[in-house]
Amino acid sequence: LGFCYDTGAGVPKDVVKAAQLYRRAAEQGSAPAQFNLGWDYENGEGVQKDLVEAVRLYRLSAAQGYSTGHCGLGRCYMYGIGVDKDLVEARRLLTLSAGQGNSRAQNLLAELA
What we know:
Layout: H1 2-7, H2 15-27, H3 31-43, H4 51-63, H5 67-79, H6 87-99, H7 103-112
Helix pairs in contact: 2-3, 3-4, 4-5, 5-6, 5-7, 6-7
């Protein structure tokens, strides 16, 4: 439902409501919701921008083995978003994600090469 409000799929687009719904699901342990809420914090969509909170949520998502969570966290390490830039950690996380078929992670790994 959060995704529907985030994108306006079948309901009026409402990024604040989307973030609220992602938060509820994230607090219940949903790895996709943790990632999506992290994305909202990274970009200031529906919540106040907070890069530290974004990274915390990406970590929670990645800790559950969610490939998009690994990719998001790896991108943060790659570019120094909310964390110190660390290309070794970025490569490790992106490799995990790419190994699960995540094309975004594969593209980011190609940039690191």
